[in-house]
Design brief:
alpha/beta, Rossmann fold, six-stranded parallel beta sheet, 17 helices, 17 strands, 41% helix, binds nicotinamide-adenine-dinucleotide
Length: 461
């Protein structure tokens, strides 16, 4: 493994992003990004902002049309501005035609989904389908860059498909370049990564991918070059560790609740130790989202397939399921029973500043509450239209105040900052009984208690 620090080309000092097309190892060739989801749209618009000519392939024609008009079909802060700016710069186009898009592209970044399937193992069939098409149209010198999160060994198996199916694809290199962006901060993270990981076995291909980033970085960023399998494992190990950290602080909060100690204060001081760090030390309703759950399942599935027993990740998974029950129990503790109780829910997405509902903790928690007879009146400022499919039976309302109407308890599940600014007197006046379960610890307990609320938090005394 090699680590080197990277700023702009040349003297290694900062340089502005480009307004003129680039030359260099890409030889005037373009970049192709396949998949216009959270990762692909950010990467395509971001690479174009770097100064590269980019063509983004998306199988959904409606999405292609929207993106071509500068509309982002999901909520991601600053992405629409970036998209519009890159389109206006004339270096970003969208298409559904994969074969045409890869023609003349130096690097083809794959950013399609790798969801859980087969008992938790990652489903890489979308990648395999794309590679089958690419095997017919790529030629030596072109590079396939896997940006999707993929099981260890995926690059190797895709290379076999490429070589078996294709004529003249032996000189095509496959590189892993895992993505570490956080939804809600994806644009910032794309331009300000903590590290860029590039895995592969061709020095030239690795250097070309490094060059693609180097042209846009305005500060020094460590570039880690390694082999494919290590790059693949780095991504899973990172996400499983993050889930472990959240799982630990959630259990800490339960213990602190039991002994009357403020877990938030404990966690803040713990995080001052650089060996521990502040991030991911906030007690909450359980971890979720589009990555941690599926990546932890793949990690465990890999271990199982090798007959290796991993105690910690298994416990982290099980503890998270218990955390959902724990949140439901907190509501029940305040209300005595859930039968025929109306719960006003604030926030459904797995975190603030995203419309993404994938594996949000709100889903299992609200299912438990509904199974036990509660009626849900939910407000979320951005949750996608897939809400009815993932949470059938809940009532979606248009304002937080409507969620309070006749409710017995407010349950805060997502840390949208606007919830802190609500008129909590008005909320209370709308309710049948004044109870709050704040799973994100975003409210000031003194304030809501002043308005007569019974307030329950996650370890925040
Ligand atoms: N979302 C995140 O925060 C995040 C962060 C880091 C890594 N990742 C990883 O990146 C990958 C993509 O995640 P995402 O959240 O962007 O997924 P997504 O579901 O939002 O986007 C995938 C896109 O690819 C398109 N697509 C699927 N098959 C296609 C094909 N054959 N041709 C063209 N387009 C196709 C889909 O229509 C969709 O628009 C996953 O492996 C994920 O684990 C995601």
């Amino acid at each position: 493994m090699t680590i080197f620090s990277m700023g702009s080309e040349g003297d290694g000092k900062n340089s502005p992003r480009r307004d003129t097309p680039l030359s260099g190892p890409l030889g005037g060739k373009k970049i192709c990004v396949v998949g216009a989801g959270f990762v692909g749209t950010v990467a395509a618009a971001g690479f174009a902002k770097f100064g590269h000519e980019v063509i983004c392939v998306e199988k959904d024609p409606a999405r292609v049309a929207e993106l071509s008009r500068g509309k982002v079909p999901f909520f991601e802060r600053d992405l629409e501005e970036l998209l519009k700016s890159s389109l206006a710069g004339g270096r970003l186009t969208f298409t559904s035609n994969l074969e045409k898009a890869v023609d003349g592209s130096k690097a083809v970044f794959l950013t399609v989904g790798t969801p859980s399937a087969n008992g938790g193992r990652a489903d890489i069939s979308a990648l395999k389908d794309i590679i089958s098409v690419l095997s017919k149209c790529l030629s030596p010198g072109q590079i396939v860059v896997i940006k999707s999160t993929v099981p260890v060994g995926t690059a190797g198996s895709l290379k076999i498909i490429l070589e078996q199916n294709g004529s003249g694809t032996r000189g095509v290199e496959i590189i892993n370049n895992p993505e570490f962006l956080r939804e809600g901060n994806a644009v910032f993270d794309f331009f300000n990564p903590h590290r860029i990981v590039i895995g592969g076995d061709s020095h030239d291909a690795i250097e070309t991918v490094a060059h693609i980033y180097r042209m846009g970085m305005t500060r020094h960023v460590p570039i880690i070059t390694t082999n494919n399998e290590t790059a693949e494992m780095i991504k899973y190990a990172s996400n499983v560790y993050l889930a472990t950290k959240v799982g630990f602080v959630n259990e800490l909060a339960r213990l602190c609740d039991g002994v009357g100690v403020n877990a938030v204060e404990v966690a803040r001081v713990m995080g001052m130790d650089p060996r521990i760090g502040q991030e991911f030390l906030n007690p909450g309703p359980g971890w979720g989202g589009s990555c941690l759950p599926k990546d932890l399942m793949e990690f465990l599935g890999l271990a199982d397939s090798l007959g290796i027993s991993l105690v910690i990740p298994r416990a982290v998974h099980d503890a998270n399921q218990k955390q959902f029950d724990h949140v439901a129990q907190k509501v029940k503790d305040l209300l005595g029973t859930l039968e025929k109780k109306r719960i006003g829910v604030l926030g459904l997405t797995f975190k603030a500043d995203t419309s993404d509902l994938r594996d949000s903790p709100s889903i299992p928690i609200l299912k438990i509450l509904m199974e036990k007879g509660a009626e849900i009146m939910a407000f979320d400022p951005a949750a996608g239209d897939d809400l009815a499919a993932v949470l059938p039976g809940i009532n979606r309302v248009n304002t937080p105040y409507e969620s309070a109407d006749g409710s017995d308890c407010i349950l805060i599940l997502t840390e949208w900052s606007e919830f802190q600014l609500l008129d909590w007197k008005r909320m209370g006046d709308n309710m049948r009984t004044r109870n709050i379960v704040d799973t994100r610890n975003i409210l000031a307990p003194e304030l809501v208690k002043k308005y007569g609320f019974d307030y329950s938090s996650m370890g925040q005394i």
